[in-house]
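Entry 14. Structure prediction run on the chain below.
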Amino acid sequence: MTDPALPSLVLVTGPEEVLVERAIAGLVAAGRAAGADVIRVDAAGYEPGSLVLHASPSLFGGATCIIVRGLHEAPDELQLDLLSLLGAPLDDISLVVAHGGGAKGKKVLDTMKKLGAEVIECPAIKSDRDKSDFVMKEFARARRRITTEGVRALVEAVGKDVRELAAACAQLVADTEGTVDDAVVDTYHGGKVEASGFRVADAAVAGQAGEALRLLRHAIATGVDPVPIVAVLASQLRQLIKVGSAGRGSSAQLAKTLGLAPWQVDRARRAVAHWTGDGLAVALQAVAAADYEVKGGGRDPVYAVERAILTITRARAAH
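Output returned:
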């Protein structure tokens, strides 16, 4: 029998690679701690019959932990070998199978679940709400506290890539003490492209033309491309429209419905009170025109963004 700390069957499901890798690393560590030989099997380039050979009892005895990656891309031969292995007693074998989603490999999935496999979910982290939840969990795992404003600042600064977001959380945990707030995040990540774009957008949506232009020129001077700044402006305005048309309800309820984080709902609610529907329409048109120009349709991308910012701030002031 395998060590009780190492389950006989584990199913790692979902497409989020950061979570998949973390789950498998934990299982590999548990296998090695239990004295098991760890064998990795990838779907790509699988040789028929090799899984059965790996699962054969060793002349020297001892447990074996077999990690199978990419079941969702597995050839028929690997799926058949897995089903054959699952149909026999798994003495001294711990089998870990990772499936990234989709219909391929479903028979193996269903068989493992029927046999009582431990399931580790690794759902996609896409929306800002998902990323905010991820950051909160990262700090909770490290027994550290991060404020709502700190979460917001971190997601805005490095939230484009989950792997980078995880690394940023780890860096802040390792390099700081006490509660992490937006000022701490800004010290480490304030110069990122996304952070610069959000500062410009926040000022523009708030009607602060001078501040928005100052921040834009600083961002351009430090090497930030106009394209992501326009993208953030568009995103901020779309959030205002979403929240403004969503009606009443708690921030948490609306966040779930709209795919936003609660802090985004709160921020949009505060901002949209200073806007009219016509003003938002004018602002969106200005951003669409800027988007065309910064992507090659105009002669001066920076001037295009400046003009969009001035139009946005005037549209808000017309409230």
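The chain has a mean pLDDT of 90.
Filed with the rest of this week's runs.
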